[in-house]
Amino acid sequence: MAVAGLATLGAAHAQGAPVEGKDYQKLSPPVPVASSGKVEVVEFFWYGCPHCNALEPYLNQWLAKLPPDVSFHRIHVGFTPVHAYHLKLFYALEAMGVEEQYHSKVFAAMHVAHQRLGQDSEILAWASSVGLDGAKLVSFMNSFSVAGKLPQAKQLTAAYHVEGVPTFGVQGRYITSPAMVGSETGVFNVLNALIATVRKQG
User: Fold this and answer.
1) In what residue span(s) does the Thioredoxin domain sit (predicted)?
2) Which domains are delineated in the chain?
C-alpha cells in the first residue's frame, strides 16, 4: 500500500472519530487473539518496504507512550520469496534475542545504505559491520524454528486481510493503515481510537 505523498491528506480528518470503511475496516470473522487481558496491536511490515521504513520514527514515538494495557508486536509478511527471506532475518534476530537492538539497523542498511540483504553473503557482511555474529545469524535464519514462522505469518496475514504494508491489526477485530487514513501520523490517532473502542467492548 502506498503512502507516499499522503503525509497531510486526511490528517485533519483522522483527528476526529475514525470512519469505518475509510479509516479502518472491521474484520469478519475476527481473528482469535491470546487472552492476555491486554489490547493486542500488531504491525504487518516488510524490511524492504520504504513506507514501513518512513513510518518507523512515528511508530517508535507512539510505542514510547504505549499504555500498560496494550501489547504490541510485529509480523513480517511473506508474500514472495524476497519477503520470505527478510522474514527469516527478522525472526532470526528475534530468536537470538537481539531484534529490538538491530531492527532499526536493518532498515538503515536497506534504505539508507541501500544494501539488498537478499542473500546469505550480504547478511554475513552486514552482520559483521554492526557487530553481530553473522554465521550464527544465518544459522538461525535456516533453522527449523524460524522456517516455521513463514506459514504462521502467511496465515495471520491472510486472516487479517492484509494486502499491503504497513498495516496494523487491533485485537483481531480491526485493521488500519497509513494508506487508508491518508497520513503516516494520523494512523496513530485511529489506532488510539480503536484501542479505546476495544476497551469499551471488553
Assistant:
1) 5-196
2) 1-77+163-202 (3.40.30.10), 82-161 (3.40.30.10)
Phi–psi pair at 177, nearest 5 degrees:
-160, 160
d(CA 103, CA 85): 15
Strand 39-45 with 70-76, pairing: parallel
One-character DSSP codes across 94-161 = HHTT-HHHHHHHHHHHHHTS-----SHHHHHHHHHHTT--HHHHHHHHTSHHHHTHHHHHHHHHHHTT
- pLDDT the model gives residue 83: 98
pTM of the predicted protein model:
0.91
**What gap in Å lies between CA 75 and CA 141, rounded to an integer?**
16
Classify residue 29 by its DSSP letter.
Answer: S
Nearest partner of 169 among 104, 103, 77, 56, judged by Cα: 77
Cα 119–chain centre separation = 22
* Mean pLDDT by groups of 10 residues along the chain of 202 residues: 36 67 97 93 98 98 97 97 98 97 98 98 98 98 96 97 98 98 96 97 86
C-alpha cell at 105: 539497523
